[in-house]
Amino acid sequence: MGGESLVAFDLDSFENVTQRLMAAESEREICEIAISEIPSVFDVALGALWLYDSDASELQLAASTERADEVFDWSVTYRPGNSLSWEAFEQDEVRTYSELDAERSQYNADSPVSSEIILPIDDYGVINIGSLAAVEFDDETIRLARMYATHVQAALQKAEREHDLRVQRDRMERFIGVVSHDLRNPIHVVKGRLELARQTGELSHLEDAEAGVARMETLIDDLLTLAREGYTVDERTVVALGTLAERTWGMARTGDATLTVEASIPVFGDETRLKQVFENLFRNAADHAGEDVTVWVGPIVEDDTAETGTVGEQDTDRVTGFYVADDGPGLSPDKLADVLSVDRLSTGDSGLGLSIVAQITDAHGWDLSVTESRAGGARFEITDGTKPVSPFHSW
């Protein structure tokens, strides 16, 4: 290692960068500040930051210094087993290399980088600081580099919290709007029918008033569910799809509706939350298709979307989810985005029920979609998206 120069560290530049990082509002801005100032803080030309994409299971390049862009004219992506950077990220371990030519697990064995320090930033990703010439990262420089990465991590955490707060605030504003809208309609019905009953003496008007009260009770139940329990997923257990649907059916106040469980599979999830999913879907079917609606529940088998048949042991590996379908009027395409979005609360006759379904399935990490059933009604599909769901595996 003899002959390598020590990497310099400029404390004034470091303090300036720290202030700018904590004032930054977005992830992109934080990455650009952290990397663009590496030459002034460490007096080396090469620097880059990779952010972890959990869906793709890879580290994706988010920012790099001008000199790094000149040296590398291609985007670098790190994946399990393909680089020193991935090893450092996976093991949450700072790595320093003064002679990278001797390291055979580099991403690029012909890389012109001679010396490098790799700094994990928790679950967010890694920062690489390097030099084309051989340099030495002494203990003090490594300590300061760790501190640099810690400040970048703190800025990313702050930006993430502020983003989550903005999302929650926006959801609350939409929530208040939906509640005021949905409660106002049945209140008007009750007031109008009571006034007609007083004027005419016809007690039949009270039936419509009673329906308005029932609608308000449903909305209030949904509000209490949201306020008390939120959309979090607690303890997951394996439950039978058929048993879960049948136990929930009686709680959904579905009148003369008919439930048919076409096949059952094991599902790994929060049983309490799943009951809320089924109750709201059953109630939605009855509200839109009438009290004599027919509802089918069953597994979704890969390459087979029919709402019928059984699932044998040989088919369980092909199960990708489950569905709840009905023979009602279905949902028009222009309403689908509103009723299923986890970032929006549905308005109109759907109330909060389908929004709660969307939130709970999203909390499980599952996908929710809706299409047309074989009877022309609505078919709600809940799938894992990337893994088989028979059962939904613990992850």
Automatic annotation (TrEMBL):
Keyword DNA-binding appears in the UniProt entry: no
Domain Histidine kinase residue range list: 178-388
One Gene Ontology molecular-function label: phosphorelay sensor kinase activity
E.C. code: 2.7.13.3
Keyword hit for ATP-binding: yes
Keyword entries, A-Z: ATP-binding, Kinase, Nucleotide-binding, Transferase, Two-component regulatory system
InterPro entries from the UniProt entry: GAF (IPR003018), GAF-like_dom_sf (IPR029016), HATPase_C_sf (IPR036890), HATPase_dom (IPR003594), His_kinase_dom (IPR005467), HisK_dim/P_dom (IPR003661), HisK_dim/P_sf (IPR036097), Sensor_HK_Regulatory (IPR050736)
Catalytic activity as recorded in UniProt: ATP + protein L-histidine = ADP + protein N-phospho-L-histidine
Protein name stated in the entry: histidine kinase
Originating organism: Haloarcula terrestris
